[in-house]
Specification:
Oligomer: homotetramer
Largest sheet of chain A: 7 strands, mixed
Helix content of chain A: 40-55%
Order of helices and strands of chain A: HHEHEHHEHEHEHHEEHHHEEHEEH
CATH class of the largest domain in chain A: Alpha Beta
Distance between the termini of chain A: 19 Å
Largest interface: A-B, 52 and 52 residues
Number of strands of chain A: 11
CATH superfamily of the largest domain in chain A: Type I PLP-dependent aspartate aminotransferase-like (Major domain)
Strand content of chain A: 15-25%
Radius of gyration of chain A: 20 Å
Strand order of the largest sheet of chain A: 1-7-6-5-4-2-3
Chain lengths: 339, 339, 339, 339
Amino acid sequence: MHKFRNDYCEVAHEAVLAALLENKEQQFVGYGLDEHSLNASKMIKDMFNCPNADVHFLVGGTQTNLTFISYVLKDYEATVAVKTGHINVHETGAVEATGHKIYTVDGRDGKISVDDIEKVIKYHSDEHMVKPKLVYISNSTEIGTIYSKSEIEAIYNYCKDNGLYLFVDGARLACALMSDDNDLTSQDLAKNCDAFYLGGTKNGLMFGEALVITNKDLQADFRYQIKNKGAMLAKGFISGIQFEAILKDNLYFKIAKNANNMAKLLYEKLVSLKLDVDPVYTNQLFVKVNNSLANKIIEAFGCELWSKQGGYSVVRFVTSFNTKIEDIDEVYNYLKHIK
Amino acid sequence: MHKFRNDYCEVAHEAVLAALLENKEQQFVGYGLDEHSLNASKMIKDMFNCPNADVHFLVGGTQTNLTFISYVLKDYEATVAVKTGHINVHETGAVEATGHKIYTVDGRDGKISVDDIEKVIKYHSDEHMVKPKLVYISNSTEIGTIYSKSEIEAIYNYCKDNGLYLFVDGARLACALMSDDNDLTSQDLAKNCDAFYLGGTKNGLMFGEALVITNKDLQADFRYQIKNKGAMLAKGFISGIQFEAILKDNLYFKIAKNANNMAKLLYEKLVSLKLDVDPVYTNQLFVKVNNSLANKIIEAFGCELWSKQGGYSVVRFVTSFNTKIEDIDEVYNYLKHIK
Amino acid sequence: MHKFRNDYCEVAHEAVLAALLENKEQQFVGYGLDEHSLNASKMIKDMFNCPNADVHFLVGGTQTNLTFISYVLKDYEATVAVKTGHINVHETGAVEATGHKIYTVDGRDGKISVDDIEKVIKYHSDEHMVKPKLVYISNSTEIGTIYSKSEIEAIYNYCKDNGLYLFVDGARLACALMSDDNDLTSQDLAKNCDAFYLGGTKNGLMFGEALVITNKDLQADFRYQIKNKGAMLAKGFISGIQFEAILKDNLYFKIAKNANNMAKLLYEKLVSLKLDVDPVYTNQLFVKVNNSLANKIIEAFGCELWSKQGGYSVVRFVTSFNTKIEDIDEVYNYLKHIK
Amino acid sequence: MHKFRNDYCEVAHEAVLAALLENKEQQFVGYGLDEHSLNASKMIKDMFNCPNADVHFLVGGTQTNLTFISYVLKDYEATVAVKTGHINVHETGAVEATGHKIYTVDGRDGKISVDDIEKVIKYHSDEHMVKPKLVYISNSTEIGTIYSKSEIEAIYNYCKDNGLYLFVDGARLACALMSDDNDLTSQDLAKNCDAFYLGGTKNGLMFGEALVITNKDLQADFRYQIKNKGAMLAKGFISGIQFEAILKDNLYFKIAKNANNMAKLLYEKLVSLKLDVDPVYTNQLFVKVNNSLANKIIEAFGCELWSKQGGYSVVRFVTSFNTKIEDIDEVYNYLKHIK
């Protein structure tokens, strides 16, 4: 049966593998200076309408976050994030290991607001406390919600007015931008932050995240920083070839749309079974079931146990570029039968 | 024309690509806990006869070096290396960025000796100086030389007697072990150090280095360290699949042997042309020519300019799994003609 | 008028200055290896009945915290502390700057409980999250409360059972141990943690904190760590002379008792004026007054504004070795008059 | 007998102690914001004619070096220093612990030249190597030599032309500026570097170094950096009082002159005894004697053994504010007798 554990459990989208095969007889210069990397970079800058941005291809999300954040901050400067932020919970202290505090706020629906940030700024009054300098948000968030255009604009305006940088973790950016509930365009995003990244690992690539630095002040010598963090891929052209393949003909967004659609379909099926499902915005779906049913679902579909309270568990389904209608039907039939 | 710039300018050996394609319909658990990673790990432990070792797959060499070294050392402890060591020259301060000094010695032929290490130990006498704790060597070295069995044994014995760890950077380990001049077996190596890594990037993989920690005292919680450095690959199975493919039927060593053979053949051809070539042990060849010829070679074969003194330049040729006799002939004919 | 801003606003207790003068004709070896430092160290080990402990004299509290915590933890390991903990709020990210996350809990009355710690341990389940390894508590706490013997014993037992270390920040330890509400002896403390420090800066010295490492596993090479963090005082004998002077004839505790008594007296006086004062355990007193009165108190007595809510402010009074009954009377008369 | 081990083996100059006693009844604000610190800061800016500089009082030399260097450099940037530089040899990896490589050159007479720096700059060509960004020199150097005005000007001009910063470790700056061989004025120094510090520990204070940042670009938020490194003294006024006392009436330079004079006198005496003494520029004197005599000198005068080769040892004498003619006579008589 199809597993819904996450969106990075398959080798890669076939277009990606095909592109690698096409290039197997070639020799390339290393470290991302090859034509494929340059072309993929240009495609991204066109797509996001940010011709003056710098694009760097890194291998994974934690690596991208730690490399960029440590580049931006001075020793005493801190990142502001929601408690559920990936850098705070699931990166094993990677950002702190580069020397920087993550100051967390509770937020709401996995998102930070201008009010949250303002409270942090007001609280940090002098040199006996860290200096908040960079706001980290994820879009889509770690729980599948998305930021609206007005929310991101408000945050970025506040940041600019207060000497803060805004960095958007886009591990699942494609799903966010393809959400039926989304009103933020690619261009809006690029205009409303200092840097963001387009996730590849969770959207069809073998690996790879494209960091886009739009703020000119944060671009100088960034390749040194990448190497300093052990993040510069010798065969950088493999990142370039992959991104080129996935960006071509808008495939990057089409497959994200498929993931979203499958999650929405699953949502409708589960609701029809009277299950207690959270609203679905992107490709993550959270359903609350009794512990016994949770265990069965986890076994059958490889889902992750998200949380547990009393007799109930929240179980997460993640759809991907490779999830098909039949896979959803399988879940439906299984649950219909078992309930 | 075939380029001799380095051994990581092609996508991958065809066996590696074939293995990825074979697995494209599968779903795997992430982070290196899949069956392919486990199997590749077992193959390595068998090959090096170190059943109690821990094997971890990382993406690149700098990453492997910084992740392991920072795991081993306390804040005030230092690494000892030769001046030409990769961590000292070509990693943009990655080890220092994790907080540790690299104390360098001149060495000879790119190699460190027991005498070198002993001088360092004697010089560092008290808590006002760093405490040398880990000896870093590369085999083959950055200039293509190799350590003999007796050299490595002597170094490791000295290390054990003096509370030091020995770590072997094996970015080009396969070429070292396949050298005609080599008398060190895989098993000898594993027995005579605390950890080493088998390079994949420079020997046929798209990416990947297999870190083998043989010292039980250095194994606990190492997966935390990997994640902490942003070095844990989400789709770890892609490393596993690649290593499995390259280790199968001894392919890993066969292709290294090819690289060595091609370098030796090139050596003979260049000598026959009365060129001033350094002795060749593995897959790197250094030839000293006048600056004008150097420029032509660099343009024609993509070689790296290694150093320059007065009117002469040293140019480096690197052979790989993919270098063929015809490619060597091409160099020969070119040089024969041009001289 | 006497200022109640903090307990480190005067040069030093006269006994400390006298001891420095007595030694002004002498020459000493540096870096804390002199006879005064050795003697002060012995006095501390006797007083806390921990003959096998190592004692190190450092300059300040933040320095002591960061030097010890970074010594204990591996890169991926974290400290657990209450939100109000000094390392979390008022050290400008010093611990994070050494590479380690501080995972915070809400706690109660400025204190952490076994339940708090247990929740943290259970939440951190695998290598994608930091590994909590050291529990940091302050006694007295940042808000003047103290830990009972049973509380500290319970915490330390839990720590030992779960592979955690317990570190006690004793910037105001003397006041804690001299509290009327205290049931923890010096010996109890030393037996129920892995390390603690005796604050000197806030109890009569010009500067200086005595770090006492009772756990043998955390002692090796600690002097290297001190130097590595820039924390080794060249004229270490000045720390030794000061501690010797303040420990002699139990002066260290006598002056802390004075500070506590003065705070208690102030409490009674303020209560008699019907002011809203928090219970007082040590030498810090928090009183809630309207904003207008708060401003007057701050101006007259140099108090710190602790927090502000609506029309009310919480103002902090700190008493010290040098606070006298007349100083308290002065506050009383001022407030009696002004109200 | 007077010991010549170093220049920091006595409590402090009597003027310093007197100043502390004078202020013992006062209460001050903390963290260096008191009137004495402000006044001492002003005195320094006047003396060095750098009204726009920022002055910060830190406790020790290693602390000052690591705090400033880590403030200036980005992760991938390195310091350039001579091999004998204090940060390279005797700070237990403190600078590397903040994440930065120290790239060393051999230099001559303990000093770096423009040629040395230029070679480093040319060698570091791309992002696979660290980026040299700050030149660290000591004046006087670790072996007692001094930089001439033209040497420092040349270095600073080269630095400015090549985007490098120049930082002068002035642990023994007073002795350098008071050398008979010196042609560099205080004002020359301040104009020809980005930052320097005036050493107090080695010139009459209990502790304390005054960091003077003349480059406006390196001043913002530096107090955050101090706190972040655990280097902010709670009772900052004790630094201020000390510096005020030692700077008054030029005492700071007068006592350095005494140290220099005593070293010169000792030099003449030793030469008259036909001993093999290095030229003396400041307050350090190195004499080469046979091992047996070296041991006797070390025992009698507490000198440090500097190096050992074959049957000979180099022994170091250090004079200080407190060395008197009688102390030199004592050495002379002892050696005259023993030879």
